[in-house]
């Protein structure tokens, strides 16, 4: 979306833009998913208010949760079922989430 906005706002500076997998605006639901993912990173104790490198840490747990949130938004609901029947079973989802958060 950023490249699309630059092309619209600064046509004299951006002569060409190849914008892939973007939309002119986000839905309210997508904005909410993005905020939850962002909060997952910001509230990770290892984030250290953005100074994680100087504390020799990485907010891995928050990044994992944010990545899982993002993955949900990348796929259509019917696309989730086509990948695996097991993914539709709540216990399989909970197990996968638990394993990814370790």
UniProtKB/TrEMBL annotation:
UniProt xrefs under Gene3D superfamilies: alpha/beta hydrolase (3.40.50.1820)
Entry EC number(s): 2.3.1.31
GO MF term list: homoserine O-acetyltransferase activity
GO biological process, one term: homoserine metabolic process
InterPro entries: AB_hydrolase_fold (IPR029058), HAT_MetX-like (IPR008220)
Alphabetically ordered keywords of this record: Acyltransferase, Transferase
Name the UniProt record assigns to this protein: Homoserine O-acetyltransferase
Originating gene: metX_2
